[in-house]
Amino acid sequence: MGLINQTNEEYYLGPDGIWNSLDENYGDYQSISLKDIVNNFIISYVGEDKIISKIKRTDVAFHAQRGIQELSFDTLPSFKSQEIEISPQLYFVLPQDYVNYVKVTWTDKDGIERVIYPAHKTSDPLPIIQDSSYEYTFDENGEILYAQDSETWKRFNNPRNSEDSLEGQLHRRVNGERYGLDPQYAQSNGVFFIDQIKGLIRFSSDMVGRIVTLKYISDGLATDGEMIVHKLAEEAMYKYIAHAVLATRANVPEYMVARFKREAAVAKRNAKLRLSNIKLEEITQVMRGKSKQIKH
After folding, report:
1. What is the pLDDT of residues 59-84, one digit of tens each?
2. For residue 15, how many other CB atoms are within 10 A of its CB?
């Protein structure tokens, strides 16, 4: 029995019968839902004379969700992106389902994304309010009072220091001249750092008005629609669940746990290779430049 249960018209027009009205599920055949993963696992691995004699469905669902989380971080193509224009306040609010960033870019007039690199020599610490004697101040509950913005951030945010912060402060200067240029700072795309406490991405003052794109990864569990697994990684999910179930049960032989640990690692590696999407023609195009001489 075939897996496609809708006509071409239903696929291309969607439930409302209107072309490309954002209610269609284009490309959904490449993925399998979490519900189907759980059902298929119970059918294949649970029962008499099988690896797992019996197990609660909720236990399988828990390990399946953990599997999606683990695979989302370095295996599944779970990248997301957001684009905004940077305001004079020079920050980007982290998305609700943000886990870690892939890269931050700004878009030039030709639509080319230019990578923005992180600044490792600044931050936005919590600024403690001090009195005229430099002693800490407290509220009526005896808690330390903090200012809105730190002095470090104010100085980094100062437009008058933008040129100096990007090139002067990040490069060594000897007798007023730039000396010993560090290649990691040899760029003019601006810099950023992430304020984990406030949940913001802070930018250098030369980023005002630029269109910035944040590409990030989530854990694949934010919404029901995200709880899907690419079919090229389906076997890796089954092996992960099997190992997780056996590893958390009593009286399971150690060799059985070790076996499925190895099988899970192999399945994960195979999924990474499959999802790497390496194309021979694209590699050939890149390798055409191998005959070019590199001048030092």
Report:
1. 999 999 999 999 998 888 778 999 99
2. 10
**Does the residue 149 lie in any domain?**
yes
* CB contact set of 33 (below 8 Å; sequence gap of 6+): 227, 228, 229
- Six-digit token string for 64: 């399946």
Residue 128 φ/ψ, nearest 5 degrees: -85, 135
Whether 179 and 241 map to the same domain: the answer is no
- Asked whether the beta carbons of 245 and 52 are under 8 A apart, the reply is yes
Confidence of residue 145 (pLDDT cuts 50, 70, 90): very high
- Together in a domain, 142 and 83: yes
Identity at 231, one-letter amino acid code: K
Report if residue 104 sits inside a domain. yes
Angle at 114 between CA 111 and CA 119, to 5 degrees: 150
Length of the chain, please?
296
pTM score above 0.70: yes
Identity at 60, one-letter amino acid code: V
DSSP 266: H
158 falls within a domain: yes
| Domain of residue 62, residue span | 32-78+218-275
How many distinct structural domains can be found in the chain? 2
